[in-house]
Amino acid sequence: MAMKIRLARGGSKKRPFYRIVAADSRMPRDGRYIEKLGTYNPLLPKDDEARVKMDLDRVKHWLGEGAQVTDRVSRMLEAAGVVDKKDRANPKKGEPHKKARERAEEKATKAAEAAAAPVEEAPAEEAVAEETAVAEAPAEEAASAETAEAAPDAETPAQEPADEAVAKDAPAEEEPAS
Questions:
Q1: Disulfide: which of 7, 86, 96, 131 matches 18 by Cβ 3.0-4.6 Å?
Q2: What is the pTM of this model?
Q3: What was the pLDDT predicted at 82?
């Protein structure tokens, strides 16, 4: 009989909770097990002591009996200091996928172009500064013109009441003439 120390999932939907169990490798993941060795609650913070609880004496007993440990439980036992840390060779770990590599290449080419371009762009930046100074001067003239236009507008309302008074008198004169 091949023994495994593994996780058996419990808990509800979207709320996982695991039992660390010693079970026959032929049994279902959440099925029959021989002994419960601890619990694992992934919803708790990593630094919480209640995240992983194990009966280390019983775990050592089952390891002595020849039980195999799954990768996830092995990592927990490594953290507890029961099992020596294994060297895991994953040559593709951290290697970006195709699209990420393409984006990195585009970024590198743009950076190379930008590194070569500042020598040519320095005069262009000076021209932009001159254009900005020239553009500000007409804006100041336009502002003074607006102020000058605002003054006649202020006089116009004073003239309008006089025009209205004449207009009121004129219809009154026309009515008696008819």
A1: 7
A2: 0.50
A3: 82
Are residue 7 and residue 60 in the same domain, yes or no?
A: yes
Judge whether 176 lies within some domain: no
Tell me, yes or no, whether 110 and 48 share the same domain. no
Strand partners, 7: 20
Q: Which structural domain range is residue 46 located in?
A: 3-80
Whose structure tokens read 């009121």? Answer: 168
90 domain-assigned: no
Q: What is the DSSP string of the chain?
A: --EEEEEEEEEETTEEEEEEEEEETTS-TTS--SEEEEEE-TTS-TT-GGGEEE-HHHHHHHHHTT-EE-HHHHHHHHHHTSSPPPP---TTTT---HHHHHHHHHHHHHHHHHHHTHHHHHHHHHHHHHHHHHHHHHHHHHHHHHHHHHHHHHHHHHHHHHHHHHHHHHHHHHHHH-
Q: Do 38 and 74 sit in the same domain of this protein?
A: yes
* Regions in the chain scoring below 50 on pLDDT: 121, 153-154, 156
